[in-house]
Amino acid sequence: xxxxxxxxxxxxxxxxxxxxxxxxxxxxxxxxxxxxxxxxxxxxxxxxxxxxxxxxxxxxxxxxxxxxxxxxxxxxxxxxxxxxxxxxxxxxxxxxxxxxxxxxxxxxxxxxxxxxxxxxxxxxxxxxxxxxxxxxxxxxxxxxxxxxxxxxxxxxxxxxxxxxxxxxxxxxxxxxxxxxxxxxxxxxxxxxxxxxxxxxxxxxxxxxxxxxxxx
Length: 215
Ligand SMILES: [Ca+2]
Ligand SMILES: [Ca+2]
Ligand SMILES: [Ca+2]
Ligand SMILES: [Ca+2]
Prior knowledge:
Elements: H1 2-21, E1 24-34, E2 38-46, E3 56-61, E4 72-73, E5 84-88, H2 91-98, E6 104-105, E7 118-123, E8 126-131, E9 149-152, E10 168-170, H3 197-214
Parallel strand pairs: 5-6
Antiparallel strand pairs: 1-2, 1-9, 2-5, 3-4, 3-7, 7-8, 9-10
């Protein structure tokens, strides 16, 4: 038991710096009501400037079947701190439903999700953030978002490879039924609203340092 604790502690200590290193966090997932169950996908938030997004990737663990590993890999683009990234299976339905363009189209099947699937965010092949339990089908679970959405609580994450339910809010299953746009849903998905204080405070503290220096 003691050895197990030490092993777990070591694992946590080894994982923490890697998670802290991740500049991307999973902030939303959606399963839309348009024909074909579209749009489907996720939102991510860029914590700090990323020179090469191709170090990151996504995977969906479908219906409690365990990890599928990294199915989608980002292209070698740069991403600016404080920006959002939307990955979807279908750009046309994404834009019709949300009213703005998605960032990336996934044609690998990673975003073929329907409210009962867990999602893993990888950085250099390590899981740095997670939504849902990869070994549990989400149907009837508190994190189910069939025909609905899930959204991360501000100033939380990334959570490493252990899902933290309290860090998420939910629209509730079947919320999107019969709607044609996100705005019609009540409550609508708060897409593009996640914020993390560190992004603002780092420039704020730079300003206060500059102010001190000038005085
Ligand atoms: Ca999958
Ligand atoms: Ca599924
Ligand atoms: Ca659906
Ligand atoms: Ca439904």
